[in-house]
Structure formats: structure tokens, C-alpha cells
């Protein structure tokens, strides 16, 4: 089971002075038993139960008031850590007094090498200002699985980027975070109503970029990203109609249309409407062509 492997990778850290807050969010399998057995064997592991709210974000929000350490690090139930990860990140945090330390990350699939993110183009010595880190996080040139000063931590993807924005210094370290890609039951792979809320996080980031006046190129990057998410999610609800009632489909579609209109309003205000409309038209016909091709192949 992925969870057992994950817990062992935490327990085997060369750095020993840490606690682990294990949040069981209404699991229906053996997860709670596994967590409780680990807590008995190792007092650094503490188990808390909460209702299932559908996203990891809610579990992080639940955990934050329970954190007692100076630094905070998040890991999902199926990801893995190299034995020296906490040690390398902590050493770098002390050395630089940075608010965030970003380790190397491997997109992990068992039995496969997996691509890797290392510093900035392989350079871990780079030190970023908060604004620089924020800009590089817009398309995840740098990832969000960073060691952070607890006092500045918030929960979701939007505030991950805000954390970088508000930081004075963001640095990189050795140590590997293995971001699992081959768990078919991962929350990120399940199609639920909350799947279609992703675009609103991207819109909030777009609004931050607009407010900060980071330039048309940055704003267009986010507008085009939002419109890509919109188009993907419109087709996703089409492909998964059987998972939702008619009423729920209408609600999701209305929310997505509202999101698109919000993005178009921003593009109109900033003189990017023509590009935005052209992108929407191109996206639609490209996706339609792919869908028709797929349907014909299945005849």
C-alpha cells in the first residue's frame, strides 16, 4: 500500500527532530489502522481524524493550528522522500535564512526514471526574491513542495504562490521529493465537482498579476492558462456526464461560464480581448476536431 511506503520514507529521515501530523480525512480503507500502528511505534507521529471534504487543501487547513515547529512541510499519502530530504532543506534554511526551501523533485512512477526539477535550470545556488519565485510558479517552473517558515504558511495552490510572493527569499536544496504519478486513486485523478473549481484558483492568480501590474506578457500567460483550463473542463464535464445529475451538470457549466466571463472581462480591461477571443475559437475547433476523430476511431 502506498501509505505504508510513504510513512517509512518519513520515518527513515536522517534528520530526527520533527513531528508528523497524520490527517485521516474519513478514509474507508485500512489507512487509519496503518496510521495508528505507526503512532504506537513512533511517538513523533500523531493521528487526527476529520470528515472527508474532498481536497487535500482542507486537510492542510485542519492541520495548520496543530503545527508546533518553526518549519512546515506537506506530503501526500503516496509521495516519497529521500532519506536526506529534511536534513538538506533544514541546513539550507539555516544557512540562508530563507522563508522557503525548494528541494529537487522527481515525477515518480515505480520502475521508471521520471523527469526531475532541479533548482533553476539545474542550478541550486540561485536565490530568488518573492516576486521572482511567484513569477516562476505561474507555470510551475518551480514547484510548491517547499519547506516553509510556519508563521507564513497558508493552505492551497493560490496561497502557495502568494507565500512565494510575500517571501523575502526563496532558495533551493539537495534532497529528493518523489511526486507520485502512478496512483490511479489519487485525489487529483478523481473527477468530482471540486475538479471544476481549479479555474477559480487560476483566476485569483490572474487578478493578483493584474493588480500588481506585472505587464501584459505575464497577464496574457495567466489569461491564456485560464482559458485553456476552461476549455479542458468544459470537455471534461461533457466526457463525464454519467457521473453527475442533470442539475449538477447545469450548475457546473454555469460556474465555468462565469469563470470564462470573468477572464474575458479582465482581457477587455487590459486590451487583450481580441487575443482571448481568438484563443477561445481556436481551442474549441481544435478540441472538436480531436473529439470527432476519437469518435470515428471507435465506430
Walk me through this protein's architecture.
With 299 residues, the chain is α/β, with parallel strands linked by helices. The protein has two domains: 2-180, Spore Coat Polysaccharide Biosynthesis Protein SpsA, Chain A (Alpha-Beta Complex); 191-297, no CATH class. 49% of the residues lie in helices and 14% in strands. The protein contains ten helices and eight strands. Strands 3, 4, 5, 6, 7 and 8 form a six-stranded mixed beta sheet that branches. A two-stranded parallel sheet has the order 1-2. A hairpin with a 7-residue loop joins strand 5 and strand 6. Helix 7 (198-212) runs antiparallel to helix 8 and helix 8 packs antiparallel against helix 9 (246-269). The radius of gyration is 21 Å and the shape is globular.
